[in-house]
Amino acid sequence: MAHKKKTTSSKSGSVKPSSEQQTTETTPDLFIEKGPVRPYIVTEPPKELTASRTITTMKEKLMLLALIVFTASIRLPRLSQPNSVVFDEVHFGKFASYYIKGEFFMDVHPPLAKMLYAGVAALAGFKGDFLFPEIGALYPKDVPYVVMRTFSAALGSCTVILLYLTLRASGVRSWIAFVCGLCFAIENSYVTISRYILLDSPLIFFIAASAYAFKKYETYHSFSIGSLKTLIATGLCLGMAASSKWVGLFTIAWIGLLCIWRLWFMVGDLSKSVKSVFMIAIMKLVCLLGIPTILYLLFFQVHFQSLRFEGDGSSFLSSEFRSALIGNTIPQNMVYDVGVGSMVTLRHTGTMGGYLHSHQHNYPVGSEQQQITLYPHLDFNNEWIIESNNAPGVTFKSFHNLSDGTVIKLLHPGTQCRLHSHDHKAPVSENSDWQKEVSCYGYPGFTGDGNDDWIIEIDKSKSVPGEAQERIIAINTKFRLKHALSGCYLFSHETKLPEWGFQQQEVTCAHSGKAYLTLWYIEGSENPLLPEDTKRISYKAPSFLQKFIESHQKMWHINSNLVEPHYFESLPTSWPLLSRGISYWGDDTHHKTVYLLGNAIVWWSVSAFIVVFAIVVLYELISWQVGKSILQDSNVVNFHVQVIHYLLGFAIHFAPSFLMKRQMFLHHYLPAYYFGVLALGHALDITCTHVLKRKKTFAYIFLGVFFCASYYFFNNHTAIIYGDEWTKEACKSSRWVSTWDYNCDIFLDKYEDYATLELETEETPLRTMPYPTLSSESSPVIEINKNVVELEAEKVERQKPSDAPPVPGKETYDDIMKQPGAKIFKDQYGNSIDPDVAKQWLQQEGGSILRVEKKTVKTKLPKN
């Protein structure tokens, strides 16, 4: 790095500091040697640098101990409150339960942080019986949620210590780093996220550990033992960060750019051989890319091995993947050959929609014929009989297979209708002229017409090589169905039908569109014309690499489709201004709330410093261009280098937010904000040691005022951090910005009024939130064990019941309709259904109420 200050010259022409300066300063001078043609920078740090940036004195050890005690007093108290599920604990606590029980689930994040919570819970005796059903659900006594929160808080506390150590490793004086650590310990947003079972605390801990390890690495001489240890530690921390959330990949990119920066100067360092530079580059490549990659793959291997049973979320995966899960319902031993007369199920390959499906419900628009949809679950309404287009309904005496170009009809045996298309607009995609309606048309005895004819086109590039490319083979052959009269292809996409279509996936006939959305294959297959000992086929158990690739495709797909509006979402442009926060939890029975909000003093200081630093650098560049001397002091040079490093980290973690089209929330800013706090630490250091170097008293006063202001803000907002008692007046006066939308009306007028509240017991009914408190991640959650499918990716709003939920099966349709707001019915798959239809189903044998919510009645329906 470039550093310069008052120096003494050596005979060799290099610029070196005096021995006194070397032992008392944490910022070394720049070593410049004379080369045969040009002077060059010596890139190796002086041996004294590591010692000067390491905690060795008793005074600093006591200072660090004081920081640990102070941090613990802020981060660890009152973790038992609230005693109910908070914000995204509804997801990550539930995932811990699934790990313990070994039931497969689907999430948009890598597994490490979730596995850590599961491990902590399992060690505390948790059996996974509580599924964290919704925000506000009371924790049973046997759920070790306090232990799980303590783990999160401990990591958050350690992050404060890592910030101190990182600032010291990059040249900040100990007493200034101490004040920065104190301010970070009381940063409201980090205090809040580290109190709950969320992924943010482990993620930021691993990012902070990566930053510290790499900054420590920069103080060591190349090829030393300390250098190798810290480089390996950096790789390990990077691997764990990336394995907790994909945000960790940005940290890898940041350190990668810093390595390229340093290697660039090493190439010009004539004191280093080409071989040594090459070896350093290889070491960095192995440690900083190889180790994280190995860890990332290893954690996914543990993830797959831990989740061995069919469970919530497995329906989002392919049948191949699910076939390896214990207890799966995927068909096995299907008839190998498919021909005329075969009863088959057709699965769509391009989406997670599932099987070609029809049922006794008609479109209310277009032709008003019977609906065709994609349905994700096994059902007899997914079955189709393949007929010859020339002899529909005729039973052949011998088996006729299906080759490329064969024209067929598809009969739906449950309704005696055939797959049909015609010149009607698609039911939902009606504005797309290239899509036409697909229906199921006909009646018993009707042999169909030309609009029922479909031409098989085998996609050889997607089919298994060999005979599956010549004729239809179950599972192995991928094909398209071309409508014989119009030339369009049987097509599906992720567009959902409205409530009249039970929110199942739309199927159309497309004249254009993406080719992979027109691809199908046969899963289930039976044919009475084949002998009993005919060749059969099953899904092959996928390899680890196949599971890894598929799971990432689904993770990316689900994550990119979390685009529905959210009450507390915010735009990245508003984050540096701290325009608003996020409501995490609220209880109108006890009149308390939890709201994520940053510490405005620290937060706005970071944002202001970034702007000021940009202006200063611009001024310095202009000054340099006109011939003025700049950066003549080693402290100033180190300040510039380190701040640029950290602001590069800020930018790399912040900029991608502008490219994401999914829901975004304030907590997505926190990894970038951490690097901003590190940069602010250097700003405070240069202010006190350079700007105010002749006025040390003023420097101490400046730091003291900054900390006191930060602590005042923290202390003034503790009620919304810890879920404490507060008053309406105090709450309203704490709103420095009108857009801080935490609900002050939830609090009582006086503190004395809280003493009169009746203590809530576990039997107390859950209360409806006075304003929305919604989970942010919107991960797909499928409750198969309860026969309820809740697709949060579709934003099925889950509100708390205003009264105690009914006993399953003991409330009638009329009883339900009398409840205020209970007007929406959903079946066990999360599909909206007409109330009259629900009434008929509930009156059948086997129909029962599963759940009643403020706006939703979910029912378990008998088989149709």
TrEMBL record:
Pfam families: MIR (PF02815), PMT (PF02366), PMT_4TMC (PF16192). GO terms for cellular component: dolichyl-phosphate-mannose-protein mannosyltransferase Pmt1p-Pmt2p dimer complex; dolichyl-phosphate-mannose-protein mannosyltransferase Pmt1p-Pmt3p dimer complex. InterPro entries: ArnT-like_N (IPR003342), MIR_dom_sf (IPR036300), MIR_motif (IPR016093), PMT-like (IPR027005), PMT_4TMC (IPR032421). GO terms for molecular function: dolichyl-phosphate-mannose-protein mannosyltransferase activity. The chain crosses the membrane at residues 62-80, 146-166, 172-190, 197-214, 220-239, 246-265, 277-299, 594-619, 639-660, 672-692, 698-714. Keywords: Endoplasmic reticulum, Glycoprotein, Glycosyltransferase, Membrane, Repeat, Transferase, Transmembrane, Transmembrane helix. Its EC number is 2.4.1.109. Residues 9-19 have a biased composition (Low complexity). It catalyses: a di-trans,poly-cis-dolichyl beta-D-mannosyl phosphate + L-seryl-[protein] = 3-O-(alpha-D-mannosyl)-L-seryl-[protein] + a di-trans,poly-cis-dolichyl phosphate + H(+); a di-trans,poly-cis-dolichyl beta-D-mannosyl phosphate + L-threonyl-[protein] = 3-O-(alpha-D-mannosyl)-L-threonyl-[protein] + a di-trans,poly-cis-dolichyl phosphate + H(+). Pathway: Protein modification; protein glycosylation. Residues 1-29 are annotated as: Disordered. It is found in: Endoplasmic reticulum membrane. The keyword Transmembrane helix applies. Residues 335-389, 399-459, 470-525 form the MIR domain. SUPFAM superfamilies: MIR domain. GO terms for biological process: ERAD pathway; fungal-type cell wall biogenesis; protein exit from endoplasmic reticulum; regulation of endoplasmic reticulum unfolded protein response. It is a multi-pass membrane protein. PANTHER family: DOLICHYL-PHOSPHATE-MANNOSE--PROTEIN MANNOSYLTRANSFERASE, DOLICHYL-PHOSPHATE-MANNOSE--PROTEIN MANNOSYLTRANSFERASE 1-RELATED. Belongs to the glycosyltransferase 39 family. Transfers mannose from Dol-P-mannose to Ser or Thr residues on proteins. This is Dolichyl-phosphate-mannose--protein mannosyltransferase. It comes from Naumovozyma dairenensis (strain ATCC 10597 / BCRC 20456 / CBS 421 / NBRC 0211 / NRRL Y-12639). The lineage of its organism: Eukaryota, Fungi, Dikarya, Ascomycota, Saccharomycotina. The gene is NDAI0B03170.
